[in-house]
Amino acid sequence: MSHRMLHAPCLRDAAAVLFLALLATTPAAARGRYYNHSGSIETSHPDWLSWMPGSASLASLSLPGTHDSMAFTSTGGDLTQTQSLSLRAQLDAGLRALDIRCRHIGDRFAIHHGVVYLNANFDDVLTTTTQFLRDHPGETILMRVKEEHTPEGNSRGFQQTFEWYRNQPAYSPYVWRGTHVPTLGEVRGKIVVLDNFSGGAYGVSWGSLALQDDWTVSTIFDIDNKWDKVRDHLGRTNAGAPPTLYVNFLSGSSVAAFPNVVAGGDGLSIRGVNDFAIDHLVGGNVQRAGVMMMDFPGAGLIDAILALNYRLLPSASILPGDFGTAFRNISYTLGGDAQARWYGLNAFLQNAAPGRYWHALALKGSWAGWMHTDGSYVQSDTMDDYTHLAFTSRTVTSAVSNGFLGGFVNAQLGALSGSTSDRALQLHGRVSSRFPFQLWSVVVKKAPGGLSNWAYSDYGTGYKASLGDYTYAVQAYSASDGVYLYEHGQFEGNVLRLTSGVDYLGDLGFDDILSSVRILGPYRATLCEHPSRTGRCFSTTQSLSDINAAAGGPWNDQISSAGIDFVGLR
Hints:
- The chain is of the alpha+beta class.
- The longest helix is centred in the middle third of the chain and has 17 residues, at 223-239.
- It has twelve helices and 26 strands.
- It is elongated.
- It starts with a strand and ends with a strand.
- Helix 5 (223-239) runs parallel beside helix 7, helix 7 (273-282) runs parallel beside helix 8 (299-306) and helix 8 (299-306) crosses helix 9.
- It has a six-stranded antiparallel beta sheet. It has a six-stranded mixed beta sheet with strand order 6-5-4-7-8-9.
- InterPro entries: Beta/gamma_crystallin, G_crystallin-like, PI-PLC_domain, PLC-like_Pdiesterase_TIM-brl, PLipase_C_PInositol-sp_X_dom.
- Its EC number is 4.6.1.13.
- Residues 481-521 form the Beta/gamma crystallin 'Greek key' domain.
- Belongs to the beta/gamma-crystallin family.
Protein backbone atom coordinates (compact mmCIF):
# COMPACT_ATOMS: atom_id res chain seq x y z
CA MET A 1 0.00 0.00 0.00
CA SER A 2 1.17 3.54 -0.63
CA HIS A 3 0.45 7.11 0.22
CA ARG A 4 -0.28 8.90 -3.05
CA MET A 5 -1.24 12.38 -4.11
CA LEU A 6 -2.33 13.26 -7.62
CA HIS A 7 -2.29 16.86 -8.85
CA ALA A 8 -4.47 18.13 -11.65
CA PRO A 9 -2.82 20.81 -13.85
CA CYS A 10 -2.57 23.89 -11.63
CA LEU A 11 -2.75 27.49 -12.87
CA ARG A 12 -1.99 30.29 -10.43
CA ASP A 13 -5.37 31.97 -10.97
CA ALA A 14 -7.43 28.82 -11.46
CA ALA A 15 -8.82 26.15 -9.17
CA ALA A 16 -6.68 23.08 -8.63
CA VAL A 17 -8.06 19.65 -7.75
CA LEU A 18 -6.13 17.52 -5.31
CA PHE A 19 -6.71 13.92 -4.28
CA LEU A 20 -5.23 12.48 -1.12
CA ALA A 21 -5.45 9.00 0.29
CA LEU A 22 -3.75 7.92 3.51
CA LEU A 23 -2.91 4.26 3.26
CA ALA A 24 0.43 3.91 5.03
CA THR A 25 2.63 5.67 7.52
CA THR A 26 6.26 6.75 7.64
CA PRO A 27 8.33 7.15 10.82
CA ALA A 28 8.85 10.62 12.24
CA ALA A 29 12.39 11.98 12.10
CA ALA A 30 14.41 11.97 15.29
CA ARG A 31 14.37 15.02 17.57
CA GLY A 32 11.47 16.70 15.79
CA ARG A 33 13.73 18.24 13.13
CA TYR A 34 14.95 20.97 15.45
CA TYR A 35 18.47 19.48 15.62
CA ASN A 36 20.72 18.20 12.85
CA HIS A 37 24.13 16.62 13.23
CA SER A 38 24.66 15.10 9.80
CA GLY A 39 26.17 16.21 6.53
CA SER A 40 22.77 16.70 4.87
CA ILE A 41 19.45 18.26 5.84
CA GLU A 42 15.77 17.79 4.95
CA THR A 43 15.16 21.31 3.70
CA SER A 44 16.18 23.50 0.78
CA HIS A 45 15.55 27.25 0.38
CA PRO A 46 18.23 28.63 -1.96
CA ASP A 47 16.00 31.45 -3.24
CA TRP A 48 13.66 32.30 -0.39
CA LEU A 49 14.64 35.97 -0.08
CA SER A 50 13.89 36.49 -3.77
CA TRP A 51 10.14 36.50 -3.10
CA MET A 52 10.42 39.03 -0.26
CA PRO A 53 9.57 42.67 -1.05
CA GLY A 54 12.65 44.76 -1.78
CA SER A 55 11.28 47.53 0.45
CA ALA A 56 11.62 45.31 3.55
CA SER A 57 14.36 46.40 5.94
CA LEU A 58 16.74 43.64 6.99
CA ALA A 59 15.69 44.57 10.52
CA SER A 60 12.10 43.51 9.74
CA LEU A 61 13.12 40.02 8.62
CA SER A 62 13.51 36.81 10.56
CA LEU A 63 16.85 35.39 9.47
CA PRO A 64 18.15 31.93 10.37
CA GLY A 65 21.92 31.88 10.85
CA THR A 66 24.78 29.82 12.25
CA HIS A 67 27.14 30.45 15.14
CA ASP A 68 30.79 29.78 14.27
CA SER A 69 29.68 28.87 10.77
CA MET A 70 32.90 27.23 9.60
CA ALA A 71 33.21 24.82 12.56
CA PHE A 72 31.48 22.03 10.65
CA THR A 73 34.09 19.31 11.02
CA SER A 74 35.37 17.41 14.05
CA THR A 75 38.64 19.39 14.07
CA GLY A 76 39.19 20.19 17.71
CA GLY A 77 36.59 17.68 18.93
CA ASP A 78 33.03 18.07 20.22
CA LEU A 79 33.82 21.18 22.24
CA THR A 80 34.83 23.02 19.06
CA GLN A 81 32.36 21.69 16.49
CA THR A 82 29.16 23.76 16.19
CA GLN A 83 27.80 22.82 12.75
CA SER A 84 27.40 19.74 10.60
CA LEU A 85 26.72 21.32 7.20
CA SER A 86 29.35 22.76 4.90
CA LEU A 87 29.09 26.48 4.23
CA ARG A 88 27.44 26.03 0.84
CA ALA A 89 25.00 23.50 2.28
CA GLN A 90 24.06 26.02 4.98
CA LEU A 91 23.28 28.65 2.36
CA ASP A 92 21.32 26.24 0.19
CA ALA A 93 19.24 25.23 3.23
CA GLY A 94 18.17 28.85 3.74
CA LEU A 95 20.59 30.11 6.38
CA ARG A 96 21.42 33.74 5.65
CA ALA A 97 23.56 34.94 8.56
CA LEU A 98 27.12 33.72 9.04
CA ASP A 99 29.53 34.02 11.95
CA ILE A 100 33.08 34.13 10.55
CA ARG A 101 36.02 34.19 12.99
CA CYS A 102 39.32 35.34 11.43
CA ARG A 103 42.80 35.00 12.87
CA HIS A 104 45.14 37.61 11.39
CA ILE A 105 48.30 35.72 10.44
CA GLY A 106 50.87 36.55 7.76
CA ASP A 107 48.70 39.40 6.43
CA ARG A 108 45.94 36.91 5.66
CA PHE A 109 42.90 35.59 7.52
CA ALA A 110 42.80 32.00 8.76
CA ILE A 111 39.43 30.79 10.07
CA HIS A 112 39.53 29.82 13.73
CA HIS A 113 37.30 28.78 16.58
CA GLY A 114 39.30 30.09 19.48
CA VAL A 115 42.75 28.52 19.28
CA VAL A 116 41.61 25.85 16.81
CA TYR A 117 42.39 26.37 13.12
CA LEU A 118 39.41 25.09 11.11
CA ASN A 119 41.40 24.15 8.01
CA ALA A 120 39.88 27.04 6.05
CA ASN A 121 40.83 30.57 5.11
CA PHE A 122 38.87 33.72 4.37
CA ASP A 123 39.28 33.10 0.64
CA ASP A 124 37.34 29.85 1.09
CA VAL A 125 34.51 31.76 2.78
CA LEU A 126 34.37 34.50 0.17
CA THR A 127 34.65 32.13 -2.77
CA THR A 128 31.71 30.07 -1.50
CA THR A 129 29.49 33.03 -0.62
CA THR A 130 30.11 34.95 -3.84
CA GLN A 131 29.48 31.84 -5.93
CA PHE A 132 26.20 31.34 -4.08
CA LEU A 133 25.20 34.94 -4.81
CA ARG A 134 26.06 34.51 -8.48
CA ASP A 135 23.81 31.46 -8.55
CA HIS A 136 21.05 33.19 -6.56
CA PRO A 137 21.21 36.96 -7.20
CA GLY A 138 17.97 37.67 -5.34
CA GLU A 139 19.55 36.66 -2.02
CA THR A 140 21.73 38.48 0.49
CA ILE A 141 24.09 37.19 3.19
CA LEU A 142 24.80 38.81 6.54
CA MET A 143 28.38 38.07 7.58
CA ARG A 144 29.75 38.83 10.99
CA VAL A 145 33.51 39.30 10.63
CA LYS A 146 35.27 38.99 14.00
CA GLU A 147 38.96 39.02 14.90
CA GLU A 148 39.75 35.74 16.62
CA HIS A 149 42.77 34.40 18.53
CA THR A 150 46.26 35.95 18.56
CA PRO A 151 47.63 37.81 15.50
CA GLU A 152 50.99 36.69 14.22
CA GLY A 153 53.52 37.77 11.57
CA ASN A 154 51.63 40.76 10.15
CA SER A 155 52.92 43.95 8.53
CA ARG A 156 49.54 45.72 8.65
CA GLY A 157 46.42 45.98 10.77
CA PHE A 158 43.42 43.65 10.70
CA GLN A 159 41.26 46.29 9.00
CA GLN A 160 43.82 46.78 6.24
CA THR A 161 43.87 43.08 5.49
CA PHE A 162 40.09 43.09 5.44
CA GLU A 163 40.21 45.95 2.90
CA TRP A 164 42.67 43.93 0.82
CA TYR A 165 40.22 41.01 0.65
CA ARG A 166 37.23 43.28 0.04
CA ASN A 167 38.99 45.03 -2.86
CA GLN A 168 39.92 41.87 -4.72
CA PRO A 169 38.21 41.93 -8.17
CA ALA A 170 36.60 38.53 -7.53
CA TYR A 171 34.95 39.71 -4.30
CA SER A 172 34.53 43.47 -4.51
CA PRO A 173 31.28 43.51 -6.56
CA TYR A 174 29.62 41.33 -3.92
CA VAL A 175 30.52 43.25 -0.75
CA TRP A 176 28.11 46.04 0.16
CA ARG A 177 29.90 49.22 1.24
CA GLY A 178 27.19 50.85 3.36
CA THR A 179 27.08 51.16 7.15
CA HIS A 180 23.34 51.55 7.85
CA VAL A 181 20.79 48.75 8.17
CA PRO A 182 19.68 48.46 4.54
CA THR A 183 16.54 47.35 2.79
CA LEU A 184 16.63 44.05 1.02
CA GLY A 185 16.40 45.82 -2.33
CA GLU A 186 19.63 47.68 -1.58
CA VAL A 187 21.63 44.53 -0.97
CA ARG A 188 20.29 41.76 -3.18
CA GLY A 189 23.26 39.83 -4.49
CA LYS A 190 25.54 41.30 -1.78
CA ILE A 191 27.28 40.40 1.45
CA VAL A 192 26.33 42.72 4.31
CA VAL A 193 29.24 42.82 6.74
CA LEU A 194 28.46 42.97 10.45
CA ASP A 195 31.65 44.76 11.45
CA ASN A 196 33.02 43.21 14.67
CA PHE A 197 36.60 44.51 14.53
CA SER A 198 38.26 47.83 15.27
CA GLY A 199 39.86 50.28 12.92
CA GLY A 200 37.05 51.72 10.84
CA ALA A 201 33.51 51.32 9.56
CA TYR A 202 33.28 48.45 7.08
CA GLY A 203 29.63 47.52 7.42
CA VAL A 204 26.87 47.59 10.02
CA SER A 205 28.60 48.12 13.35
CA TRP A 206 28.39 45.14 15.70
CA GLY A 207 28.07 47.60 18.54
CA SER A 208 24.87 49.06 17.04
CA LEU A 209 23.02 45.73 17.21
CA ALA A 210 20.57 44.70 19.90
CA LEU A 211 22.45 41.57 20.95
CA GLN A 212 22.01 38.52 23.16
CA ASP A 213 25.14 36.35 23.25
CA ASP A 214 25.40 34.98 26.78
CA TRP A 215 27.18 31.82 25.70
CA THR A 216 28.31 30.29 28.99
CA VAL A 217 26.24 27.22 29.91
CA SER A 218 28.03 25.81 32.92
CA THR A 219 26.35 22.37 32.92
CA ILE A 220 23.62 20.65 30.95
CA PHE A 221 21.27 21.50 33.82
CA ASP A 222 21.71 25.19 32.91
CA ILE A 223 20.32 24.80 29.38
CA ASP A 224 16.92 26.00 30.63
CA ASN A 225 18.53 29.25 31.78
CA LYS A 226 20.11 29.75 28.38
CA TRP A 227 16.72 29.24 26.74
CA ASP A 228 15.21 31.83 29.09
CA LYS A 229 17.70 34.39 27.76
CA VAL A 230 16.93 33.46 24.15
CA ARG A 231 13.17 33.66 24.77
CA ASP A 232 13.42 37.00 26.55
CA HIS A 233 15.42 38.44 23.65
CA LEU A 234 12.82 37.13 21.21
CA GLY A 235 10.26 39.09 23.20
CA ARG A 236 12.39 42.23 22.95
CA THR A 237 12.85 41.65 19.23
CA ASN A 238 9.15 41.17 18.66
CA ALA A 239 8.24 44.39 20.44
CA GLY A 240 11.36 46.36 19.58
CA ALA A 241 11.93 49.39 17.40
CA PRO A 242 11.41 48.43 13.71
CA PRO A 243 14.72 49.95 12.46
CA THR A 244 16.84 48.07 15.02
CA LEU A 245 18.60 44.89 13.96
CA TYR A 246 18.29 42.25 16.69
CA VAL A 247 20.73 39.32 16.93
CA ASN A 248 20.05 36.36 19.20
CA PHE A 249 22.58 33.57 19.82
CA LEU A 250 21.01 30.22 20.72
CA SER A 251 24.48 28.72 21.12
CA GLY A 252 26.27 27.98 24.36
CA SER A 253 28.93 25.69 25.76
CA SER A 254 31.40 24.82 28.48
CA VAL A 255 33.60 21.87 29.33
CA ALA A 256 30.55 20.36 31.08
CA ALA A 257 28.03 21.21 28.35
CA PHE A 258 29.24 20.73 24.79
CA PRO A 259 27.59 22.69 21.94
CA ASN A 260 25.80 19.64 20.53
CA VAL A 261 24.08 18.93 23.85
CA VAL A 262 23.18 22.57 24.49
CA ALA A 263 21.57 22.68 21.05
CA GLY A 264 19.99 19.23 20.88
CA GLY A 265 19.66 17.97 24.44
CA ASP A 266 20.88 14.58 25.58
CA GLY A 267 18.20 12.60 23.73
CA LEU A 268 16.69 11.54 27.04
CA SER A 269 15.40 13.92 29.71
CA ILE A 270 17.38 17.10 28.95
CA ARG A 271 15.89 19.36 26.28
CA GLY A 272 18.14 21.47 24.09
CA VAL A 273 17.75 25.16 23.27
CA ASN A 274 16.77 24.29 19.68
CA ASP A 275 13.92 22.14 21.00
CA PHE A 276 12.55 24.95 23.17
CA ALA A 277 12.93 27.40 20.29
CA ILE A 278 10.99 25.44 17.68
CA ASP A 279 8.04 24.95 20.03
CA HIS A 280 8.00 28.67 20.83
CA LEU A 281 8.16 29.73 17.18
CA VAL A 282 5.67 27.21 15.80
CA GLY A 283 3.29 28.10 18.62
CA GLY A 284 2.76 31.57 17.17
CA ASN A 285 4.49 33.47 19.99
CA VAL A 286 6.75 35.54 17.72
CA GLN A 287 6.14 37.62 14.61
CA ARG A 288 9.69 38.97 14.17
CA ALA A 289 12.61 36.83 15.32
CA GLY A 290 15.50 38.95 14.04
CA VAL A 291 18.79 37.20 13.31
CA MET A 292 19.00 33.84 15.11
CA MET A 293 22.50 32.34 15.30
CA MET A 294 22.34 28.62 16.03
CA ASP A 295 24.39 25.49 16.55
CA PHE A 296 23.32 22.37 14.64
CA PRO A 297 19.96 23.79 13.49
CA GLY A 298 17.53 21.22 12.13
CA ALA A 299 15.28 21.63 9.11
CA GLY A 300 12.22 22.39 11.20
CA LEU A 301 13.92 25.10 13.23
CA ILE A 302 15.35 26.79 10.13
CA ASP A 303 11.93 26.67 8.51
CA ALA A 304 10.08 27.90 11.59
CA ILE A 305 12.24 31.05 11.54
CA LEU A 306 12.08 31.47 7.79
CA ALA A 307 8.28 31.00 7.75
CA LEU A 308 7.76 34.13 9.86
CA ASN A 309 8.66 36.18 6.79
CA TYR A 310 5.60 35.01 4.84
CA ARG A 311 3.52 37.42 6.90
CA LEU A 312 5.26 40.27 5.04
CA LEU A 313 3.70 39.13 1.74
CA PRO A 314 0.29 40.43 0.57
CA SER A 315 -2.46 38.23 1.98
CA ALA A 316 -4.03 37.92 -1.47
CA SER A 317 -0.92 36.28 -2.93
CA ILE A 318 -0.42 32.56 -3.36
CA LEU A 319 2.43 31.53 -1.09
CA PRO A 320 5.72 30.40 -2.68
CA GLY A 321 6.55 26.73 -2.91
CA ASP A 322 9.01 27.14 -0.03
CA PHE A 323 6.02 27.28 2.29
CA GLY A 324 5.25 23.63 1.59
CA THR A 325 8.74 22.64 2.70
CA ALA A 326 8.40 24.72 5.86
CA PHE A 327 4.96 23.28 6.64
CA ARG A 328 6.23 19.74 6.22
CA ASN A 329 9.19 20.32 8.51
CA ILE A 330 7.42 22.20 11.30
CA SER A 331 4.77 19.46 11.40
CA TYR A 332 7.34 17.21 13.06
CA THR A 333 7.13 19.29 16.20
CA LEU A 334 3.37 18.77 16.57
CA GLY A 335 2.12 16.16 19.02
CA GLY A 336 -0.94 14.89 20.81
CA ASP A 337 -4.20 13.74 19.28
CA ALA A 338 -5.81 15.15 16.13
CA GLN A 339 -7.46 18.02 17.97
CA ALA A 340 -4.20 19.09 19.64
CA ARG A 341 -2.37 18.88 16.32
CA TRP A 342 -5.09 20.94 14.63
CA TYR A 343 -4.71 23.68 17.24
CA GLY A 344 -0.96 23.63 16.67
CA LEU A 345 -1.38 23.84 12.89
CA ASN A 346 -3.84 26.68 13.16
CA ALA A 347 -1.58 28.67 15.50
CA PHE A 348 1.33 28.30 13.07
CA LEU A 349 -0.69 29.14 9.95
CA GLN A 350 -2.46 32.17 11.39
CA ASN A 351 0.84 33.56 12.68
CA ALA A 352 3.07 32.79 9.69
CA ALA A 353 0.61 33.70 6.92
CA PRO A 354 -2.28 35.71 8.39
CA GLY A 355 -5.13 37.34 6.52
CA ARG A 356 -5.99 34.19 4.57
CA TYR A 357 -8.82 31.69 4.80
CA TRP A 358 -6.93 28.61 6.00
CA HIS A 359 -8.54 25.17 5.99
CA ALA A 360 -6.41 23.01 8.28
CA LEU A 361 -6.83 19.28 8.89
CA ALA A 362 -5.15 16.73 11.14
CA LEU A 363 -6.09 13.17 10.19
CA LYS A 364 -5.20 9.78 11.62
CA GLY A 365 -5.61 6.33 10.17
CA SER A 366 -7.64 5.44 7.12
CA TRP A 367 -9.00 8.51 5.36
CA ALA A 368 -9.22 10.06 1.94
CA GLY A 369 -10.32 13.38 0.53
CA TRP A 370 -11.09 15.29 -2.61
CA MET A 371 -10.44 19.00 -2.40
CA HIS A 372 -10.74 21.94 -4.72
CA THR A 373 -8.46 24.83 -3.84
CA ASP A 374 -8.03 28.19 -5.49
CA GLY A 375 -5.03 29.12 -3.32
CA SER A 376 -2.03 27.55 -1.62
CA TYR A 377 -1.94 23.88 -0.62
CA VAL A 378 0.50 22.15 1.76
CA GLN A 379 0.78 18.66 3.25
CA SER A 380 3.04 17.02 5.81
CA ASP A 381 4.63 13.63 5.83
CA THR A 382 2.82 10.97 7.82
CA MET A 383 4.09 10.72 11.39
CA ASP A 384 2.74 8.62 14.24
CA ASP A 385 -0.08 7.68 11.84
CA TYR A 386 -1.13 11.36 11.48
CA THR A 387 -1.08 13.53 8.39
CA HIS A 388 -1.47 17.32 8.49
CA LEU A 389 -2.64 19.39 5.56
CA ALA A 390 -3.87 22.89 4.89
CA PHE A 391 -5.07 24.96 1.98
CA THR A 392 -6.45 28.43 1.39
CA SER A 393 -9.60 29.49 -0.38
CA ARG A 394 -10.53 32.80 -1.92
CA THR A 395 -13.48 33.18 0.46
CA VAL A 396 -15.43 30.98 2.86
CA THR A 397 -18.73 32.13 1.38
CA SER A 398 -21.22 29.43 0.41
CA ALA A 399 -24.44 29.87 -1.54
CA VAL A 400 -25.95 26.62 -0.25
CA SER A 401 -27.66 26.46 3.14
CA ASN A 402 -26.63 23.87 5.72
CA GLY A 403 -30.09 22.33 5.74
CA PHE A 404 -30.33 21.92 1.99
CA LEU A 405 -26.77 20.56 1.79
CA GLY A 406 -27.50 18.07 4.58
CA GLY A 407 -30.59 16.77 2.84
CA PHE A 408 -28.70 16.33 -0.41
CA VAL A 409 -25.72 14.56 1.20
CA ASN A 410 -27.91 12.20 3.23
CA ALA A 411 -29.66 11.16 0.05
CA GLN A 412 -26.31 10.15 -1.51
CA LEU A 413 -24.72 8.15 1.29
CA GLY A 414 -26.49 4.85 0.70
CA ALA A 415 -25.22 4.75 -2.88
CA LEU A 416 -21.55 5.24 -2.00
CA SER A 417 -19.28 2.19 -2.04
CA GLY A 418 -15.68 1.02 -2.02
CA SER A 419 -12.71 2.37 -0.09
CA THR A 420 -12.42 5.76 1.58
CA SER A 421 -10.82 7.00 -1.64
CA ASP A 422 -13.69 5.69 -3.78
CA ARG A 423 -16.31 7.20 -1.48
CA ALA A 424 -14.58 10.59 -1.35
CA LEU A 425 -14.37 10.68 -5.13
CA GLN A 426 -18.01 9.67 -5.58
CA LEU A 427 -19.42 12.14 -3.06
CA HIS A 428 -17.23 15.00 -4.26
CA GLY A 429 -18.41 14.39 -7.82
CA ARG A 430 -22.05 14.48 -6.76
CA VAL A 431 -21.94 17.68 -4.71
CA SER A 432 -19.80 19.40 -7.36
CA SER A 433 -22.23 18.39 -10.10
CA ARG A 434 -25.28 19.51 -8.13
CA PHE A 435 -23.70 22.77 -6.93
CA PRO A 436 -21.08 23.69 -9.56
CA PHE A 437 -21.00 27.37 -8.63
CA GLN A 438 -18.60 26.93 -5.68
CA LEU A 439 -15.73 24.78 -4.46
CA TRP A 440 -16.01 21.70 -2.29
CA SER A 441 -13.91 19.64 0.08
CA VAL A 442 -14.95 16.09 0.94
CA VAL A 443 -13.07 14.03 3.53
CA VAL A 444 -14.06 10.46 4.34
CA LYS A 445 -12.86 8.86 7.57
CA LYS A 446 -13.15 5.18 8.30
CA ALA A 447 -13.78 4.27 11.94
CA PRO A 448 -12.57 5.15 14.48
CA GLY A 449 -13.61 8.78 14.33
CA GLY A 450 -13.78 11.50 16.97
CA LEU A 451 -11.51 14.47 17.68
CA SER A 452 -8.68 12.19 18.70
CA ASN A 453 -8.58 10.83 15.14
CA TRP A 454 -9.52 13.77 12.91
CA ALA A 455 -10.02 17.48 13.31
CA TYR A 456 -10.55 20.17 10.70
CA SER A 457 -11.54 23.80 10.17
CA ASP A 458 -15.30 24.28 9.92
CA TYR A 459 -16.24 27.48 8.10
CA GLY A 460 -19.66 28.58 6.90
CA THR A 461 -21.62 25.82 5.22
CA GLY A 462 -20.57 22.33 6.12
CA TYR A 463 -22.15 19.01 6.90
CA LYS A 464 -20.97 15.85 8.63
CA ALA A 465 -22.80 12.51 8.61
CA SER A 466 -22.01 8.89 9.42
CA LEU A 467 -23.25 5.68 7.89
CA GLY A 468 -21.82 2.33 8.90
CA ASP A 469 -18.05 2.47 9.38
CA TYR A 470 -17.64 5.75 7.48
CA THR A 471 -18.02 9.39 8.43
CA TYR A 472 -18.27 12.07 5.73
CA ALA A 473 -17.34 15.73 6.15
CA VAL A 474 -18.38 18.11 3.35
CA GLN A 475 -17.30 21.76 3.28
CA ALA A 476 -18.34 24.55 0.88
CA TYR A 477 -16.39 27.73 0.10
CA SER A 478 -15.47 30.25 -2.63
CA ALA A 479 -18.96 30.72 -4.07
CA SER A 480 -18.79 32.36 -7.49
CA ASP A 481 -20.17 35.83 -8.12
CA GLY A 482 -23.75 35.86 -9.28
CA VAL A 483 -27.39 36.33 -8.32
CA TYR A 484 -28.70 33.43 -6.24
CA LEU A 485 -32.43 32.75 -5.98
CA TYR A 486 -33.81 30.67 -3.08
CA GLU A 487 -37.14 28.96 -2.66
CA HIS A 488 -37.36 29.83 1.06
CA GLY A 489 -36.57 32.86 3.19
CA GLN A 490 -33.20 33.28 4.95
CA PHE A 491 -31.45 31.79 1.87
CA GLU A 492 -32.78 28.32 2.55
CA GLY A 493 -33.96 25.55 0.25
CA ASN A 494 -33.32 24.95 -3.44
CA VAL A 495 -30.99 27.47 -5.03
CA LEU A 496 -30.48 28.77 -8.57
CA ARG A 497 -27.51 30.88 -9.72
CA LEU A 498 -27.95 33.47 -12.48
CA THR A 499 -25.39 35.63 -14.25
CA SER A 500 -27.67 36.72 -17.09
CA GLY A 501 -31.38 37.44 -17.56
CA VAL A 502 -34.04 34.73 -17.79
CA ASP A 503 -37.34 35.43 -19.52
CA TYR A 504 -39.17 32.61 -17.81
CA LEU A 505 -37.96 31.03 -14.57
CA GLY A 506 -40.33 28.14 -15.13
CA ASP A 507 -37.86 26.80 -17.69
CA LEU A 508 -35.43 26.40 -14.78
CA GLY A 509 -37.97 25.09 -12.29
CA PHE A 510 -38.16 28.36 -10.36
CA ASP A 511 -41.50 29.92 -11.39
CA ASP A 512 -43.36 31.51 -8.48
CA ILE A 513 -41.24 29.92 -5.73
CA LEU A 514 -38.71 32.72 -5.03
CA SER A 515 -38.51 33.85 -1.38
CA SER A 516 -35.00 35.28 -0.88
CA VAL A 517 -32.12 36.48 -3.04
CA ARG A 518 -28.37 36.72 -2.46
CA ILE A 519 -26.14 39.06 -4.51
CA LEU A 520 -22.43 38.22 -4.77
CA GLY A 521 -20.34 40.58 -6.85
CA PRO A 522 -21.22 43.62 -8.99
CA TYR A 523 -24.73 42.63 -10.01
CA ARG A 524 -28.17 44.22 -10.06
CA ALA A 525 -31.16 41.89 -10.20
CA THR A 526 -34.50 43.04 -11.59
CA LEU A 527 -37.20 40.55 -10.59
CA CYS A 528 -40.65 40.61 -12.20
CA GLU A 529 -43.93 38.87 -11.47
CA HIS A 530 -44.62 37.82 -15.08
CA PRO A 531 -42.52 36.27 -17.89
CA SER A 532 -40.37 38.46 -20.14
CA ARG A 533 -39.96 41.00 -17.33
CA THR A 534 -43.53 42.26 -17.41
CA GLY A 535 -45.90 43.22 -14.64
CA ARG A 536 -44.65 44.55 -11.33
CA CYS A 537 -40.86 44.50 -10.87
CA PHE A 538 -38.30 45.49 -8.25
CA SER A 539 -34.52 45.85 -8.47
CA THR A 540 -31.81 45.20 -5.88
CA THR A 541 -28.02 45.20 -5.64
CA GLN A 542 -28.22 43.89 -2.06
CA SER A 543 -29.05 40.47 -0.68
CA LEU A 544 -32.57 40.12 0.72
CA SER A 545 -33.29 37.36 3.21
CA ASP A 546 -37.02 38.04 2.65
CA ILE A 547 -38.00 39.51 -0.71
CA ASN A 548 -41.13 40.97 0.83
CA ALA A 549 -38.78 43.59 2.30
CA ALA A 550 -38.51 45.09 -1.20
CA ALA A 551 -40.85 48.00 -1.93
CA GLY A 552 -44.08 47.30 -3.80
CA GLY A 553 -44.66 43.83 -2.35
CA PRO A 554 -45.74 41.30 -1.43
CA TRP A 555 -43.30 39.40 -3.66
CA ASN A 556 -42.96 36.00 -2.02
CA ASP A 557 -43.66 33.16 -4.49
CA GLN A 558 -44.67 35.63 -7.21
CA ILE A 559 -41.56 36.01 -9.43
CA SER A 560 -41.47 34.56 -12.96
CA SER A 561 -38.59 36.38 -14.75
CA ALA A 562 -35.27 38.04 -13.95
CA GLY A 563 -33.03 40.65 -15.52
CA ILE A 564 -29.34 40.71 -14.52
CA ASP A 565 -27.02 43.71 -15.05
CA PHE A 566 -23.44 44.48 -14.06
CA VAL A 567 -22.94 47.40 -11.68
CA GLY A 568 -19.66 49.36 -11.89
CA LEU A 569 -16.39 47.66 -12.84
CA ARG A 570 -16.29 43.89 -12.85
